[in-house]
Amino acid sequence: MADDTTTGAGAEQMKQAADQAQRGFEQGFADPARRAGEAMQQSGQKMAEGGSAIGLRMIEQAEENTQQAFAAMRAAAQAKDLSDVMRIQGDFLREQGSRSMAQAREIGEMIVQFGRDVVTPIKDAQG
After folding, report:
1. Angstrom distance (rounded) from CA 79 to CA 1
2. What is the pLDDT of residues 67-86, one digit of tens each?
3. Which Pfam families does the UniProt record give (predicted)?
4. Are the C-beta atoms of residues 95 and 68 closer than 8 Å to each other?
């Protein structure tokens, strides 16, 4: 029969092996899975924030465009003659074209930054 010392040593070795296996599991699987979950949560939060910011800015731009269109209509209504109306209309169209290009560029830049912000937590979790 095995004495208590041998049984105790064997039990201690089994406990150490189990502890080592658990640490290996945590380091190799559980910790990376936890970090990935946290990164996905951060990315989801960034998505919500970015989507809200872009949507809000698009609404602000639409409001600005509408105000400018009404201002041009008021000016055209007060025009003295047809040439004045044509000048007001031409000015409005030229300004609206420039404004639209600037607004599209701004939204594009926001989308690019939004994409970076969403991907960064995931990239950081992998590295």
Report:
1. 114
2. 999 999 999 999 999 999 99
3. Phasin_2
4. yes
CB atoms within 10 A of CB 103: 17
Q: Quick one: tokens of 16?
A: 């150490």
Structure tokens at 83: 């040439």
Residue 96's CB is within 10 A of a number of other CB atoms, namely 14
* Residue 78 DSSP symbol: T
Q: Express each pLDDT in 88-127 by its tens digit.
A: 999 999 999 999 999 999 999 999 998 888 888 777 776 6
Structure tokens at 48: 């919500």
Give the separation between CA 61 and CA 103, rounded to whole angstroms: 7
Which one-letter amino acid corresponds to residue 19? D
Q: Can you tell me the distance from the alpha carbon of 2 to that of 17, in angstroms, rounded to the nearest whole number?
A: 21
Cβ atoms of 39 and 118 closer than 8 Å: no
Answer whether 48's CB lies under 8 Å from 39's CB.
no
Report the C-alpha gap between 86 and 118 in whole angstroms.
47
Q: How many CB atoms lie within 10 A of CB 46?
A: 18
The Cβ of residue 26 has, within 10 Å, a number of other Cβ atoms equal to 13
